[in-house]
Design goal:
The longest helix has 20 residues, at 180-199. The protein has 344 residues and is of the alpha+beta class. It has helices at residues 21-25, 37-49, 105-110, 115-131, 141-158, 165-172, 180-199, 247-256, 280-286, 294-297, 337-343, and strands at residues 30-32, 67-73, 76-82, 208-212, 218-222, 237-241, 262-269, 272-275, 303-314, 317-329. Helix 4 (115-131) packs across helix 5.
């Protein structure tokens, strides 16, 4: 703000999930500088939840919330532009991220060979043995110090060098050291793409830039293709219901749906809260809707779009997410089941 006249920056210190959806909807562009796949998936789902499609499944321009994402790992980095409904969203290319390295528990318990093995032993095994199932908090310095000391003992027992407090933090929190030059290059790329979107001064990146400075310099732009069946940025999962289906029954179906598995869902329609799991005051205000039919709550229209936000499980990991759902009611206005499915 000192460097640029008229710029106003408002910081918020909290979890990104703590902000209501309206908070993110107030921005014209969302720039991501996040540190995990889970955090990116959440913001991606939030931005895509604002996206609406017309009757021909074309995205409505006024509902598009552009995102610019950047990330670094040591001497490597990426910058990308996500235009929901037009370019692939984060979920469309989730396969780009390699699975997190996990050590077999038998190796940790019986034959540790590296400093990381000793640290994970203290973190995953010794902590539970000593603290009786108490959840470990990686942001608590006292608990991290405990893991470090136990890892040092383990390393000395097996004659393994290299256990440091810094490495302990890196292994437990999956931290990769930051390189200033990489951060500067990637942040500059993200700032440039944001400027392009704001001003329209040039064509935006199409659509994924990779940077590698490990040996010399290598940079490349790849154009990935949008997944037309994406559950996050697509037109939405089609769900056919009877007009008598209550909101409570609908929420239960979301958890049982083979593509969604969305538990503890909050449901909105055209910006109106049909049912909110939290905060308690909103839950109490919307609780009576659970017994009403979704058909009535949506204004007795043949079909429409609702947004469900809840917890989904993927690869044994629970994440918060928002899903767009195309709800079609059977037999309304003389439609058959097949007509409803084809017209939605």
């Amino acid at each position: 703000m000192e460097r640029v006249t008229g710029v106003n920056i408002v910081p918020h210190f909290c979890r990104i999930e703590d902000k209501p959806l309206d908070f993110y909807n107030d921005f014209n562009i969302i720039a991501l500088g996040l540190d995990s796949v889970e955090a990116r998936s959440y913001i991606n789902a939030v931005a895509c939840s604002f996206l609406e499609y017309d009757e021909n499944d074309n995205p409505k321009e006024e509902t598009i919330k552009p995102m610019v994402d950047g990330g670094t790992e040591g001497f490597k980095g990426h910058a990308r532009v996500i235009i929901p409904g037009k370019t692939p969203c984060f979920e469309c290319t989730i396969w780009l991220f390699p699975p997190q390295v996990k050590f077999p528990l038998c190796t940790l318990a019986e034959t540790p060979r590296t400093a990381a093995h000793c640290i994970e032993y203290a973190h995953l095994i010794k902590w539970d043995e000593v603290h009786g199932g108490k959840a470990f908090d990686p942001d608590d310095p006292d608990q991290m110090q405990w893991v470090y000391k136990e890892a040092v003992k383990r390393a000395e027992l097996f004659g393994i060098p290299g256990v440091t407090y810094s490495l302990t933090q890196g292994v437990v929190k999956n931290i990769i050291p930051a390189i200033a030059s990489t951060n500067a290059i990637i942040s500059a790329a993200c700032a440039l793409e944001t400027l392009k979107i704001v001003s329209g001064c040039s064509k935006t990146l199409s659509n994924y830039l990779t940077y590698n400075g490990v040996e010399g310099l290598h940079t490349k732009v790849t154009e990935f293709v949008k997944d037309k069946d994406c559950l996050v940025c697509g037109p939405g999962v089609l769900i056919e219901l009877d007009t008598s289906c209550t909101l409570q029954k609908f929420i239960e179906q979301l958890e049982e749906h083979p593509k969604l598995h969305l538990s503890k869902a909050s449901v909105t329609h055209e910006g109106k809260n049909l049912y909110m799991q939290a905060p308690p005051v909103l839950e109490e205000m919307t609780r009576s809707n659970l017994l009403l039919s979704l058909f009535e709550l949506m204004g007795k229209v043949p079909s429409g779009t609702v947004h469900a936000t809840g917890t989904s499980t993927k690869n044994d990991k629970k994440t918060s997410g928002s899903r767009k759902l195309r709800v079609a009611f059977k037999g309304v206005n003389g439609m058959t089941d097949m007509d409803t499915a084809g017209g939605a």
